[in-house]
Design brief:
With about 425 residues, the protein is an alpha+beta fold. The chain folds into two domains: about 5-170, Creatine Amidinohydrolase, Chain A, domain 1, CATH 3.40.350.10; about 175-400, Alpha-Beta Complex (Creatine Amidinohydrolase), CATH 3.90.230. The protein is about 35% helix and about 20% strand. The chain has 13 helices and 21 strands. Strands 1-4-5-6 form a four-stranded mixed sheet. Strands 11-14-15 form a three-stranded antiparallel sheet.
Length: about 425
């Protein structure tokens, strides 16, 4: 699904990276590898976002080498059994997509690269994350770490230069083709949610997973590759768990429903949240909480403009929500600890190839950046969780709400 991204797009990204790097050391990057699901089966392959950004390559275990004016790909050899099950790597397709003419199989490619590495002091690559990130409770794809081990095997004296900062600078500002993909991902998400969350449709569902299934169907039917992240369909108190992805609870007409989803189109993700009333009617308390979040959402949107700092915006939204929480009788004193009992997440994150995309949160917002705006209030004791999230593009005059076509109200018209 990368038809709208020409080889010129990827070649241009490589050229801009080399210009930003401004060094003479070879740049060597690894594609992601397949991850075991169980036995000899794997999880669906997802390419490293930066590797795709530079090559358009959808294959695992490929290595990109950029060395002055020379560029080539190293592709893994596959035996007959692997080819029978997974197919052969199509070198001509890789050339067409990436714009890289020279492709070597593993043995020859590494022979050439190793010879070069023995003659240099530095090599540029992407630093590997720790094997396990405790904050998120997840293991990382080992491809970058394995590449680094192999680079050091070739020359134990090599000094590694991390080009992560340069790639962040490139990726955070979206090009026209990227914005087109993001807009399409959002359009698919909007259309699907308008159908699924319509009052007449909601009454047909008995469980959260039925809503998830119809959202998945809508995404694929409208041309998306699927979900950009694990969908969240949470009703009642389950919406107070921010990443409730079980989606297996029963639906009650008296509850609110929070749906946080985003279609993926041409590798780019939407990320939109709406909270609606399951029964078409809401209690006075539910409406009061919803109206507080809606007011915070409008306040946060007004803060998004060139030159603004996300951290500054976050502090202002935190205080605004503190006022609303006090009005709701949930807190008496506005401070970080009291507010964060009921609002435990950030207002914004960058959006693009990853749903939580790369970006420098210490740098001012600039034209062409895409981010989310998603305040919320979560009251576990009352079984009320409300979040409203839109995707916005920073423009010279402020921001454009890319997902504005999807209504923000407790009952979608």
């Amino acid at each position: 699904m990368s038809a709208q991204f020409s080889s010129e797009f990827f070649a241009g990204n490589r050229a801009r990276l080399k210009q930003l790097f401004a060094g003479t050391a070879p740049i060597v990057l690894a594609a992601n590898g397949l991850l075991q699901r169980g036995g000899d089966s794997t999880y669906a392959f997802a390419q490293d976002a930066s590797f795709w950004y530079l090559t358009g390559c959808e294959e695992p275990d490929v290595v990109l080498v950029m060395d002055k004016t020379k560029e080539y790909l190293i592709v893994p050899a596959r035996d007959a059994s692997r080819v029978a099950f997974d197919g052969a790597v199509d070198d001509d397709e890789l050339r067409r997509v990436s714009g890289i003419a020279q492709i070597y199989e593993s043995e020859e490619g590494w022979r050439q690269l190793t010879a070069r590495l023995k003659r240099v002091k530095h090599v540029a690559t992407l630093a590997a994350a720790p094997p396990y990130i405790g904050q998120y409770g997840m293991y990382v794809n080992p491809a970058r770490a394995q590449l680094i081990d192999r680079l050091k095997d070739a020359n134990g004296e090599l000094e590694l230069l991390d080009i992560g900062g340069q790639l962040v600078r490139l990726r955070v500002t979206k090009q026209p083709a990227e914005l087109a993909a993001i807009r399409q991902a959002i359009a698919v998400t909007n259309r699907t949610l308008k159908h699924v969350l319509a009052p007449g449709q909601l009454t047909k569902y008995k469980h959260e997973y039925e809503i998830e299934a119809d959202i998945s169907r809508g995404f694929r039917r409208l041309g998306a590759s699927g979900h950009g992240f694990a969908p969240i369909v949470a009703s009642g108190g389950r919406a107070c768990t921010l990443h409730n992805v079980h989606n297996n609870g029963p639906l009650k007409a008296t509850d609110l429903l929070t749906v946080d989803v985003g279609a993926e189109y041409n590798h780019y993700s939407a990320d939109i949240t709406r909270t609606v009333s399951l029964g078409g009617k809401s209690s006075k308390r539910q409406r009061a909480v919803y109206d507080a979040v809606l007011a915070a959402h409008a306040f946060a949107l007004a803060l998004v403009k060139p030159g603004a700092l996300i951290h500054d915006n976050e502090r202002r939204v935190e205080h605004f929500l503190g006022e609303k929480l006090r009005e709701l009788g949930l807190i008496k004193t506005i401070n970080k600890s009291s507010v964060r009992q009921f609002y435990p997440h950030a207002t914004s994150h960058f959006l693009g190839l990853n749903v939580h995309d790369v970006g420098d949160y210490d740098q001012p917002l600039g034209v062409g950046m895409v981010l989310t705006v998603e305040p919320g209030i979560y009251i576990k004791d009352e079984g009320i969780g409300v979040r409203i999230e839109d995707d916005v593009l920073v423009t010279k005059n402020g921001c454009e709400i890319l997902s504005d076509a999807l209504p923000r109200q407790l009952t979608l018209a």
